[in-house]
Every structure is written in structure tokens, then in C-alpha cells.
Write a structure and sequence with these properties.
33% strand, six-stranded antiparallel beta barrel, disordered N terminus, Thrombin, subunit H, 12 strands, alpha+beta, 7 helices
Length: 310
């Protein structure tokens, strides 16, 4: 009679052979080939555990990884070519409408644009005991402490000056310097916005006829207004029909400018100021734009503001 097997937590010992009936012994008897099979398995396991076999397998794996055409390796990424980049750019240009260069230039200098108003005696309007009118011009912030460039003729006769910044902040302003030979005046605002931005100025040394420019200001008090054109010429002279003042070394341009644009910036397509709009050429009494405007180079304007030349 067999005993019931007992289990414990100790390591089990080999079972003691028990008497087996002859029919069972015949059922479990193995053929010579089956008897030899465990020996082969033992030799294969010993071979696999041999250090030399392990290093050989590592070397074979490294060689397979180094081969470029191994089927199961991930394909290498193709390098982008200039044609790929050009195709992507053209796709973007055809699928999306981008701002024009003039719009980007105006946006760059827009936060620095200033509306300049002066109370001038003798003009139509009533303010206090004297006849006074309000002349409107333009200006541009060149230092973020409230230093503004404009034309001298915009503020020369004004008894008081008010400037309005791009964010709507209004402030009284005073003239701190003038350069009559270039019709320039430097103003200083008493109150400025917290985030006031100064325009970036650019030398005219590499400016050429045909370069695109925009004129930004308040023509006839309307604005800010933006007009686009090109530089028509350099080192031009102009004689004011009113005061007879002669100015030289001016930038000639054909972007539309009218009364009220005076003192505003002339801006290149990279959003940098190259001049201060100062006059338009019109031999008729209409004083409107006929296609020729003039701007004082920014080198002169920077000198008027006490800034070092380029």
C-alpha cells in the first residue's frame, strides 16, 4: 500500500524507487535512441554555457548591427536637401497668406509712432483770449525715456505741445533741442507709457534708389496711416516755398505723404528708420502730394538728438 506524499518547506529529497509491477516497467522502458537524447541535451547545455560560445554570440550580434543592409534594422533617415526646403516654403506660400513687407515694416515701428499737436496762434479756432488753432504733425520715439524726433516747422510756433503715443497715452511735451538747417526738433514728453518702445535707426550708407520704404504718420490728421513706395534718389536739395529755407542731402521718395506726415518716420522693409519726412514737392497752392517727397537722413536726426552718428 502506497503512503500519501508529504510536503515540507525543506528541499525535497530524491524519491526512493518502489516496486513496480512488470507491465509498468515495460511501459516506461526507453529505446536506446531515447536513452541517448538526455546526454545530447546535456552536451548542448554545456556548450551554450561555455564562455567562448557567449563571446562568439556577442560578436555575431555586433557584426549584424554594424551591417547597413540588415533587414531588421530601422532604415536611416534621409537628409533634407535644399530642394526639400524650397518645396516646403513654396507649399506654405501657396497655402497661407502672409503679411506684406510693408505691413511688417509698419508693425515694427508702429509702437514708436507719435502724433504731435501744437496750439499755434493765428489759426482758426478759439482757445482762451487769443485766436489759436491746432497744427497736427507726426513724430517718432528714438529713446525710450520719451525723446521724440519731429520737424521743427510742426512745433516752432506752438505755445504748447501735446503728444499722443501709440497706446493712446497723452502728454505735454517740450522742445529740448533744434536743428534749423535740417528742420528738426527734439521733444521730451513729461509722461510716458510703461512699455514705451524706441524705434531702431539705420544708417543710409547702403541705401539705394529703388529700395522699398514706407512713410508712416498722420496726413491731414488721419492716422496712423501707412503708404509704400521706393527711394527715388539721394542727396537731393529742396527750397521751402514758404520760408525759403534750403536743405540738402535729402532722401527723395515716392511713398504718398501729405501735410501731417511731417516729422514721421521713413522706414525700410526691415522696420528700421532711415529718415524723418520733412517736405513734399508741389509747385501748386494745393500743398498735396504729387509723387515727390523728401526726408532728412537719420544721421542728421541722430545728431540733433545728441546721439552718436553711425
Amino acid at each position: 500500500m502506497r503512503r500519501t506524499a508529504l510536503y515540507s518547506r525543506s528541499t525535497p529529497r530524491p524519491a526512493v524507487p518502489t516496486e513496480v509491477d512488470p507491465p509498468v516497467q515495460e511501459a516506461v522502458a526507453e529505446s536506446p535512441e531515447a536513452a541517448a537524447r538526455p546526454a545530447r541535451h546535456q552536451r548542448a547545455g554545456a556548450f551554450a554555457r561555455h564562455p567562448g560560445t557567449l563571446w562568439a554570440a556577442i560578436a555575431a550580434l555586433a557584426l549584424a548591427l554594424a551591417l547597413p543592409d540588415t533587414p531588421w534594422r530601422a532604415p536611416a533617415q534621409r537628409k533634407l536637401t535644399q530642394d526639400d526646403i524650397n518645396a516646403a516654403v513654396m507649399h506654405t506660400l501657396t497655402q497661407k497668406t502672409l503679411p506684406s513687407q510693408a505691413a511688417r515694416a509698419a508693425a515694427a515701428v508702429g509702437p514708436s509712432l507719435v502724433r504731435v499737436e501744437g496750439d499755434i496762434p493765428g489759426r482758426k479756432g478759439r482757445k482762451g483770449p487769443a485766436e489759436m488753432g491746432r497744427g497736427v504733425g507726426s513724430g517718432v520715439v528714438i529713446i525710450d525715456n520719451g525723446t521724440i524726433l519731429t520737424n521743427l516747422h510742426v512745433v516752432q510756433e506752438a505755445e504748447s505741445i501735446t503728444v499722443t503715443f501709440a497706446d493712446g497715452t497723452e502728454s505735454p511735451a517740450a522742445i529740448v533741442n533744434v536743428q534749423p538747417e535740417n528742420d528738426l526738433a527734439v521733444l521730451r514728453a513729461q509722461k510716458i507709457p510703461d512699455d514705451l518702445q524706441a524705434a531702431t535707426m539705420r544708417s543710409t550708407a547702403d541705401l539705394l534708389p529703388g529700395d522699398e520704404v514706407v512713410a508712416i504718420g498722420f496726413p491731414f490728421g488721419i492716422g496712423p496711416s501707412v503708404s509704400a513706395g521706393v527711394v527715388s534718389g539721394l542727396k537731393r536739395g529742396f527750397k521751402s516755398p514758404e520760408g525759403g529755407q534750403v536743405m540738402s542731402n535729402l532722401i527723395q521718395f515716392d511713398a504718398a505723404a501729405n501735410p501731417g506726415n511731417s516729422g514721421g518716420p521713413l522706414v525700410t522693409m526691415d522696420g528700421q528708420v532711415v529718415g524723418i519726412v520733412t517736405a513734399i514737392l508741389n509747385p501748386t497752392p494745393a500743398r498735396t502730394f504729387l509723387g515727390i517727397g523728401f526726408a532728412v537722413p537719420i544721421e542728421n536726426a541722430a545728431t540733433a538728438a545728441g546721439q552718436p552718428p553711425f
